[in-house]
Amino acid sequence: MAQAASKTCEICVSSPGHNYCEQCDQLFCDGCKISHLRTKMSKNHTFLSGPNINPEVKLYCKEHDENFIYYCIECDTPVCKICAIKNHKKHDLSEIKESLEGINAEVKTDIETKIRKLQSKIAEIDQGTHTYQDDVKEVIQAIREEGKRLKEMIDKKVEGLINTVKEKDTKNVQTLQSVGKEIKIALDNAKEQQKFYQDTQGIKNTTKILQKLKQIKSQIDQIEETQVPMMPSIKYDKKKAVESEIETLFGELKSE
């Protein structure tokens, strides 16, 4: 006998039983009702729902005014004893209570199986999410390390170019300073001979001044005029790096 509508579901015994199955004479919650109607044996069962249902009323065959005592497995319907003889004589019949026990066990198994499968899927998603997030962290770290390596290569190249410029600058400046020093010495010698020449202008003796001028000329001729070297120059021709060239330096992301 079904309990009152205010009681709990007679299947899961946890939720309110607001749905009364007219064929099974049992109270169902909304979830168990759905599962009940999805079962092949009870998919055509009818329900009374709401606060005013009266499960105390016995189910009966309206055609013969008899209680349902059998369940026709072939026709998937409850039958009374008269229906069993007249319309379901050669059919496979079972008692209502036996059918109910079978359906109850089937529903319980279906629910437990479904819960296990859903829990397994959730665990699979959780594990997959964790693994994927670990992969993301590893990829980010790999990209950062690759970027750091490329930056170090660039810094090394920059320092190498700067050192080359500095070395050439030192060498060229030393060469220019050396030539400049030689020319300065020659200039000092020329100025010295110029002073001697000026001193000769006060000599009255023609023979003496002639000798002095010859000496000065000889000294002037000996002063070497160092050639000014070609002035060094340096330029830097920049290359415009395009994004496609930069991308070739990095690896590729592969995702599914």
What does this structure look like?
There is one protein chain. The protein has 256 residues and is mainly alpha-helical. The protein has a domain of 89 residues: Double Stranded RNA Binding Domain. 55% of the residues lie in helices and 9% in strands. Strands 2-1-3 form a 3-stranded antiparallel sheet. The longest helix is centred in the middle third of the chain and has 105 residues. The N terminus is likely disordered.
List the helices and strands and how they pair.
Blueprint: E1 19-21, E2 26-28, H1 30-38, E3 47-49, E4 60-61, E5 66-67, E6 70-72, E7 77-79, H2 81-86, E8 93-95, H3 96-200, H4 206-222, H5 243-247
Antiparallel strand pairs: 1-2, 1-3, 4-5, 6-7, 6-8
Helix pairs in contact: 3-4
